[in-house]
Write a structure and sequence with these properties.
7 helices, single chain, mainly alpha, 183 residues, Arc Repressor Mutant, subunit A, two-stranded antiparallel ribbon, elongated, 7% strand
Length: 183
């Protein structure tokens, strides 16, 4: 799966609303665009899609703008991406054992794998809320890193472990979260 520009922009816009949710009143599209560096005309289209999905509410006129329609802990990254990009799937390959999907060599096992991977992606995106991401952005929570995925059980049931030569890592909040420990 590739997160589209729309999915990224929608996530950034809603994260901005979550980070500034304690401010009185709605946030204008112009303010969101300035804070996030997103192009305002495209952002307006994305916010309309998010409104249609029930993730934001809008107020028109002077002092108008957007607010989250639900609490940040009730909006997941999966909700946001699905709202602007449609269902989260690895591809449109179909399901094993349906509609002749297993007529060709190797096709059935690969369909099963693609479905497992797609479900893993959906669950991962649905496990991250705007509140979680806002906490990370504020430095109140550790940022995710690749070793979090590498050390978890794989979708196929095998335990994945980091390579034995990988240096130990520590995490800090911020863009340079991956730093080797000094020994």
């Amino acid at each position: 799966m590739k997160v589209s520009t729309r999915g990224d922009y929608a996530s950034r816009a809603l994260l901005s609303l979550a980070l500034h949710g304690d401010e009185a009143g709605p946030t204008s599209v112009r303010d969101i665009a300035e804070r996030t560096g997103l192009p305002q005309p495209y952002l307006e289209q994305i916010l309309l899609a998010l409104k249609g999905a029930g993730l934001v509410r809008s107020k028109r006129g002077v002092g108008g703008g957007y607010v989250l329609a639900r609490a940040p802990d009730a909006i997941t990254l999966g909700d946001i991406v699905s709202a602007v990009d449609g269902p989260i799937t690895l591809g449109d390959f179909g399901l094993p054992h349906q509609d002749g999907a297993c007529d060709h060599e190797g096709q059935c096992v690969l369909l099963a794998i693609w479905n497992v991977v797609g479900e893993h992606m959906r669950r991962h995106l649905d496990a991250l809320t705007l509140a979680d991401i806002a906490s990370m952005a504020r430095g109140q929570r550790e940022w995710p890193e690749l070793s979090d995925v590498e050390s978890s059980d794989s979708a196929l049931g095998e335990a994945a472990s980091p390579p034995p030569t990988a240096p130990p890592r520590t995490r800090r909040a911020g863009p340079s979260a991956l730093t080797a420990r000094e020994g």
